[in-house]
Amino acid sequence: MMNILVAEDDDLTAQMVAHALEKFGYRVTVARDGTEAFKLLRTGRYRLMVSDWQMPGMTGLELCEQIRRRRSSGYIYIILLTGYGGLDNLVCGMEAGADDFLTKPFNPAELLMRVRVGERVLALESRELTIFALAKLAESRDQETGEHLERMREYARILAEELERHPDFRSEIDGEYISLLYMTTPLHDIGKVAIPDRVLLKPGRLTQEEFEVMKTHTCLGAETLESVADSHPNASFLRMATEIALTHHERFDGKGYPEGLSGTDIPLSGRITSVADVYDALTSKRVYKDAYSHQTAREILIDGRETQFDARIVDAFLRRESDFLAIKMRHRDPAQADATDAAQQDNEDRTDAVNGTCTAATC
Amino acid sequence: MLLKSVSEMTLNTYARNPVPSLHRSFPSGDQQEWIDLQQLVDRCLGNLELADRLIARFRERVAETRESLQQALNREETGTIGQLAHRLKGESANLGSGTLARLASELECAAAENRTQDVRVITEQLLRACQQFSENVFTFRELSNDVPEAGSRTGPPYDSGRPE
């Protein structure tokens, strides 16, 4: 049950609004002025507030401005309920930081709809933050660097945008798909939270046994996400996250893991994430290798066209190379040295990347 | 899901249909000129006990505002008159008192534009209206001694979520 704060000095209106919201299933607290409301908001219990405009002490507008200045950890959705009508006042309220506007006399049905809009907005924020926080948690155990997830989802988004123009993908990729992919790609390695440190953090090449352990991160991540998805059947992002976690190490020729899927049996989201992940792994510095140049990574992706990767996705990468470079520069890790020339790279590492053998950080 | 069903049920029951028990205790005559009870009870989602409490409190508020307005008029404090009018406008609108809300709105505009002559005239009209309101508006209980039925509830009407 959501907590809603009603900031209203007029106790008649406060009682009516509070009663309606309670009838609709919310828990309601009434603050008698802006100062009391601000104090209550600082408890962190309220993410949605219905506020009067004209109040003693701190007005509704001043309250909005204070809330926005404070930059609390979670967004607070503000509905101004006021006797001031008119476009000028609406603009003034929105500029102060209000999200929505209701004029007196209020209508309970309209109030409910506005509150529901607020809930939807807050849910979106919570969803994205939760996903990214989970992904960061997984990443924090790994040797991968802070910007990896940001780059990954940007690469995936660019590939999906490019593929949207391809006749083969038009029926599958649309704006919603791209948005979901952007949101869920960071969860691709979530299963790594269950991999023991001796394997996950090993700096060199993994033994066959260790590699087998490492490979389980795909299934472990997918199982976790799937169990959540089962209890939230409408959460399509969890379905896509499960697909990605499970299949981002599959290869187009069927030689990948965990299931050895091939071709279009591998979900598109997994195929896209695979290209984004490998490109980022190659162009990022690791404890056991320097960052490859873009040119080297490009050659490796081309080498893997139709074997490791879906050729159409590699072609999409080639058409959007400049965007990849821009993202790589924009989200460069602070400690990352400039990419070294391909000629200086260890041939063995390069072979690993193409053939799908594994060090801890490329699995 | 639960929230949705509760909300829809509530809306279907109260907001989209007339409140059944209201017809029995609906006062007629002068009262109706001053307060739209159907609108008020709809806004209270059928809770007659709440509606009754609000009418009683509003009557007190109107009397208080009347006194404050009179004082502000005597002192020619246009700003105070504007603030009082603004507040009365919101309260009246929510309570379903169209006459008071309209006059208060006119007064608020006149005060905001500093039209002193209009402020005096409209304030006097509003003072008379407030007086008539107090004389003509009664709670359901006062009118019929009926105990409110539909949607009635006990306990405080708000603060279900205040931290302890």
Can you give a write-up of this model?
- The complex is a heterodimer of chains A (363) and B (164).
- Chain A is α/β, with parallel strands linked by helices.
- Chain A contains 15 helices and 5 strands.
- Chain A has helices at residues 11-23, 34-41, 60-70, 87-96, 108-140, 148-163, 175-184, 197-200, 208-231, 236-247, 268-283, 294-303, 311-319, 321-330, 347-355; strands spanning 3-7, 27-31, 48-52, 77-82, 100-103.
- Chain A has a 5-stranded parallel sheet, with helices on both faces.
- In chain A, α6 (148-163) packs across α11 (268-283) and α7 packs across α10 (236-247).
- Chain B is mostly helical and 164 residues long.
- Chain B has 9 helices and no strands.
- Chain B has helices spanning 2-15, 22-25, 30-34, 37-43, 48-74, 78-95, 98-112, 116-136, 140-144.
- Chain B is elongated, with a radius of gyration of 18 Å.
- Chain B starts with a helix and ends in a 20-residue tail after the last helix.
- The model of chain B is unreliable at 1-28 and 146-158 (pLDDT under 50).
- The interface between A and B is large, with 39 and 39 residues.
What count of helical segments of chain B does DSSP give?
A: 9
Count, helices of chain A = 15
Profile the largest sheet of chain B: none
**What structural class do you assign from the helix and strand content of chain B?**
mainly alpha
> What's the mean pLDDT score of chain A?
85
**Count of individual beta strands of chain B:** 0
Q: What percent strand of chain B?
A: under 5%
Shape category of chain B: elongated
Structural class of chain A: alpha/beta
| Series of H and E elements of chain A | EHEHEHEHEHHHHHHHHHHH
**DSSP helix fraction of chain A:** 40-55%
Biggest interface, chains and residue tallies: A-B, 39 and 39 residues
Largest sheet of chain A: 5 strands, parallel
Question: Low-confidence stretches of chain A at least 5 residues in length (pLDDT < 50)?
Answer: 337-356
Quaternary state of the chains: heterodimer
User: Radius of gyration of chain A, Cα only, in angstroms?
Assistant: 25 Å
